Amino acid sequence: MTLILALDASSDVLAVALSAADDHGHAVWAWQGPGAAQASSQALPALQALLHAAGRTLADVDAIAFGQGPGAFTGLRLACSVAQGLAFGLGKPVLPLSSLALVAQAAWLALTATESRQPEDLARTPLQVAIDARMDEIYGARVQAVLDAQGRVTQWQHPGSGRIQPTLMSTTAWGDALPQTDPDHPGLILGNAPQRLAAQIVPAELAQRGWHAADLTLDAIREAGSSAAGIVPLTLRLDTRDRLLDAPGGPLPWRALGLATLAQQQWRQAHNHADAAAAGLLVPPEAALPLYVRDQVAQTTAERDAARLARQQDQAKAQMQAAPPAAPTPVLRALTLNDLDAVLAVQQQAYSARGWTPPWSRGQLATSLAAGETLLGEFAGDAKGAPLCGWLAGQVAADSAELQGLAVTPDAQRTGVAMRLVAAWKDAARQRGAREMFLEVRASNDAALALYRAAGFTDCGLRKTYYSQPVEDARVLRCGLTGSAGDAS
To answer: What is its EC number (predicted)?
Structure first.
C-alpha cells in the first residue's frame, strides 16, 4: 500500500488529502478550507487532522505531494515549504504536482461521478484548463487524459504527447488562441476562468469555436468540514478506476480528491520511469520548487504594475491641473481647535469607507496643534459654514518634514483636494527650511500611492505590519524639497 500526504494552496482554497492506494482500491481522507491568508495557519493542523482520522502517523507516509503551480504566488510558496520541511524531516521524496493537471483531475472525477460520463468518451473530448491568473490574464493549457485498460487515468499530458506546458495569456489572447473543434464533439473548458472572468469570456463566442465551460464547483467548502473542535476531514473510498463508492450527500471536496488521485498517479508513473527525478516526477526535498509561470516574464509583470500606477498618476495629475470650479472657489487654510469636530467627521467618513480604523483622536490632534505642528484643511468655499472637504497633518523637524495624515471625504475624492493639500504642505515645509519630506502609506492603497507619486514622492522603504485594524505593511515614500539633482520637487 502506498500512503501519500498532499496539499495544494494554488487557488483561493486550501486542499489537503491523505491517500492510501493498493490493488483493491483507494481510501482518501480529504478536506478543503479557506486558502489565501488563512492557508498558512491551517495547513499543518489540517494535515495532522487527516493523519489522526486515518489512524496513521507521519512515519507511515511514503511521499509528500504539493501543488507546484502555476497559481497564487504565496500559496505556491507555502505548499512547497511545508512539503519540503516534512520531507526533509522524514527522509521522504516529494511529488511536485501540476496545478493545471490537478484541476483537470478534479474535474474528471466530478464529471464521471455526477454526469455519468464514461471515461473513454471523456478522453476523446478536447479539454482546456483555464485558471484566473488575476490582472485579466489566464493560466491555461490543453490537456489529455491517458487511460489504462480499466479506464483509469494514468497521467495527464499535452494532446498527443509531452508534459503539460502552462501558458500565461491575456483573456483576449487566450480566447483568440482557442482552436476550432468539431461541432459534433465540442470541447470542455475546466477551471474557474469562465466564471471569474465572465465579463470577458462570453459563452456564445466560445460556442462558436466549439467550446463550452464545464459547470462544476470544485472548490466547495463544506460547513461540516470544520468545527470548534478542529478540522474534520471526509473519509471516501474509490474503486480501482478512481470512481467514488458510496459518496456522501452535499458538496464534495473535488479539489482534494483530485489531489489525492493525481498524487497516486504520479507516484506510479515515477516508478515506471527510468529517471523520475530528472523528469520532475519524484524529487528529493531540496529539488522541490514552485512553478512560477510569471518568472520568465517577471519584468513584464513589473512593467504591467508600473503601467497601472502610471495611469493612476496621470489621472491624479489631470485632477491637479484641472481648472478649479467657478463657484464656489475652494478655500485652503490652517485649522484650529475650533475645527476639530469637522476634522474628526471627515476622518470618520474617509476611513470607514475603506473599512479602516481612524488613527487620530481629538486629544492627539489637539496635542499636535499645541506643539506647533501643522493642520491644513480645504473648505468648499469661503461662506460661513462651508463644509470641510479634506485635511492634512504634518510636522517639520530640523531639515526634514513629515506628512503624518491625509483624509478627504468620499464625495470630494478625485476632485483635486488631496493634491492641493499635498502641494500646499510641500510649499509650507520648504519655506520652513525642510529639504526632504517622508510619509507612510498602506501598501494596498493604490489610489494614495498614485497620488503621492504624482506629487513627486518615490519609494524608499517598507515597514512590516506597521498598520493595525487591519494589519498591513506600510510603504515609506520620500520627496526632495530642494530642487537639486536627484530630488523631486
So the answer is: 2.3.1.234
On whether both 329 and 447 belong to a single domain, the answer is yes
Angle among Cα 480, 481, 486 to the nearest 5 degrees reads 40
Average pLDDT over residues 109-132: 85
Question: What is the C-alpha to C-alpha distance for residues 470 and 7, in angstroms, rounded to an integer?
Answer: 28
Residues 120 and 178 in one domain: yes
How does residue 486 score in pLDDT terms, banded at 50, 70 and 90?
Answer: very low
* Within a domain: 486: no
Do 145 and 50 share a structural domain? yes
- Judge whether 259 and 252 are in contact, CB under 8 Å: no
Q: Structurally, how many domains does the chain consist of?
A: 2
* Per-residue model confidence (pLDDT) at position 296: 43
289 within some domain: no
The model's pTM: 0.60
Total residues belonging to the chain: 489
Place of cell 464656489: 328
Query: Is the bond leading into 470 cis (omega within 30 degrees of zero)?
Result: yes
Are 259 and 391 in a shared domain? no
Confidence band of 114 (pLDDT split at 50, 70, 90): low
Q: Which neighbouring-strand residues pair with 314? A: none
How are strands ordered across the β-sheet holding 458-467?
331-334, 374-379, 388-397, 400-408, 436-442, 472-480, 458-467
What pLDDT sits at residue 224?
41
Q: Which residues are catalytic?
A: 440, 452
